[in-house]
Request: fold
Amino acid sequence: MAQAVTPAVQTSSPGLRVEVGEIDRKLGELWSASDAGKVRASLVNLVVYSEAPDAIAENTPLLAGLAADHAFRALLVQADPGAGKNDVEAWITAHCHMRGAGGMKEICSEQITFRLDGPAAERLPNIVFSHLDSDLPLCFWWQGQLHPQPAPQLWTRVDRLIVDSQSWVQPGPQFAILREIEALSGGHCAVCDLNWTRIFHLRYAIAQIFDNPAAREKLPRLESVEIRYLCGHRLTALELLGWIASRLGWHLEQDGKKQFFRRRDGGEAAFVLREEKEASAAVAAVEFRFPGAAASARRAESGDFYIVEFAHGSDVAVSQMLPAGREKISDILLSELGRVGRHPLFWPSIRAIEPLL
Amino acid sequence: MNKENDNPFRNGLVNRAVAEPCTLVIFGATGDLTRRKLIPALYNLAADGNLPSGLAVVCFARRDKTSEGFREELGEAARKYSRRPVNDELWARFAANIFYHRSSFDDPAGYVSLGKELEALDTRLGTRGNHLFYLASSPTEFDIILENLRSSGLSHAKPGSWARIIVEKPFGTDQPSAHRLNEAVAAAFPERDTFRIDHYLGKETAQNLIVLRFANTVFEALWNHRYVENVQITASEPLGVEARAGYYEKSGALRDMVQNHLLQLLCLTAMEPPTDLSADAVRDEKVKVLRALRPLTGKNVEENVVRAQYTGGFINGRDEPGYREEPGVAPDSMTDTYVALRLHIDNWRWAGVPFFVRVGKRLPKSGTEIAIQFRPTPPVLFNRESQLQDANALVIRIQPDEGISFRMAAKMPGALLQIEPVKMDFHYGTSFGKPTPEAYERLLLDAMSGDATLFARRDEVEHAWRFIDGIRAAWDDGAAPRLDFYPAGTWGPREADELLAQDGAVWRRL
Reply:
């Protein structure tokens, strides 16, 4: 049994194959067979659901890496609702890392993996609820496109639904489903878009610029915003634009083919979304232009930081380096899991750019 | 000023006050504190994006150095002592705003030139006339620095700006000296702009004490004399006096540790729920605890305090000399390297509950913790034979390995009814992957934000000294208990065990 408790090497193996009805017993055996120096830790139930054919192989190493920084019980579910058979398979494993004072303790997070084929995929709520670590919050990371008719029995019990809108083919309808899920849960389920988390550090860096009074007093007359983004991350750039617009009270308007934002003072603010094939990050730079002044936040060449600047004429009033956060999906997910509470600015930001989706 | 109100992009990003642009002036900047703690803390704040866009550091000291040379020295220190690896690009940007200001502390001209430098930085870096002065020099220099700050006008902020002062410990050596120092500070800075550092309060676990007590129903309900048998607060370290003999000979463990760190922990443990989490609401409750501390004077000291000194012994695989053999220590020194106290808090909640506090050098291991020892269950059913073994204990570990553990009784598996203590353990390091910030990071950030919750207020400090002075007076006038001795590497003198035995208690084994 002990072969399922292994140091977290980046293996794609889901571990020891077990009967579904035997999972709890086998997990117990797995722990009793492991040595006494291992500590079983968990802060959250993390369900990862995907319909991609290689979901298990892709996500198992990701979860192993994640376990080093955030202890959890993971339920990894790979579903194929259209499969010609009706079958459920399960595996158990643990991801262990040296942690604690002086790195002297081996901390282990559990992973239970399921493959649901055909009609078995409809058993998702039961599969999830039967294997949760009691009393811990339930985070559900739904990878890919959301199903059009969300199951109320599932979403009313999920504390946090995590999606990544960057992967959505049709963002408009997907956001509508997301809203429906939130409503179904009676507001209990907090919605988290990893695309929104992806721009957290950039939003923080931009906020830092406008702590400076000289920069802040220019804000009402902001003339244009230009966002440079990496090919494939248009929605990331749009969410950032939506945040800027909603925070400034702008409304999107169209005049013929021209789209622009109407400022609070009635003036116009232009925007440009510039796609780049080789940008250093999902959003590589943002530039703000004011009468006689400019501000920018751009990713440093090292990649770990943003450099923010505000210049009024030839005077540079703000020049600072701020953490950029890493862009690997595991880092973004980790950042999201480490955050508590909801994202109250998310929906207003989406509404501000809805016609552009 | 809360910038969330006027910077529309701040809203929803962070749930704490944001540090304001300012210039930090460190007096005595060539000392160890700047190198080991302050600069690494500031660098880590920069790396976390927690520093304001306008920040300058002016290092005020006597030695002949240049800004360039001092930046290099600090860069080496940051690489050595920072909790995270130093990024060269970030360090270069951060260090570019560190300046060395050479002056003796008693030269008024040095403060005039400092004022000009601050004005220039305010214009150039947008620090807005906000000045945070940090007294990191020898305490003997505090008075003259404060006087010069006052007379030069630097302690008076311009309209719309602020001038604050951070005062390092020791804050006085007794109540009269603390009072004098408070008067000197008050002559230059109002109390709301005075930040007296006790770095224990910046530690995560110390802050978590309030959360543990007041965010969990289960503990607060039991947190009183009806359920608590005694409370033990321990700060132990294997180190000896090291290179601090000159200071330590004058202070001893009581002044060095109990007056500040341990009494602060005692206050957080014993205080009533504050009305809110504002600085004054929390500090009001802490002061009430200090005021309710039963004074120890005269004969009471002999009955409730054990003072001791380490002799030669064996620790961490090495033979170590006794305190009196340490360099710089008088051969007949009466300095306390260990103190154990039995304290009582005369209020409704804690009537009759002894608080045992001990601190010592050259003890077997390093650790600071607060242990709440609950009363045993009634002596029926399972508790007929061994009361101590079965009593619940809640332990809050301040350092190292910050966390909380709870000891409870459980039946051993098998046909026999055998009960054994088991421990539920929570470790910060293993539960939360993110590293714990250093205490100085939090405290510097709070001072820049104007949040004084984790700093000691004037009356707290003076109440604490008044209590300590009673004990010192008894020691000095001959009514004191004798000085006991313990071999290095042991858990203190036998008399400390006997102190607890009088209440049917034993020290927790760390």
User: Anything to note?
Assistant: Chain B has a mean pLDDT of 90. The longest helix of chain B spans residues 245-270. The CA atoms of residues 232 and 431 of chain B lie 25 Å apart. The interface with chain A takes residues 3, 6-15, 18, 21, 46-49, 51-54, 87, 89-90, 93, 126, 128, 400-401, 427, 429-434 of chain B (CB under 8 Å).
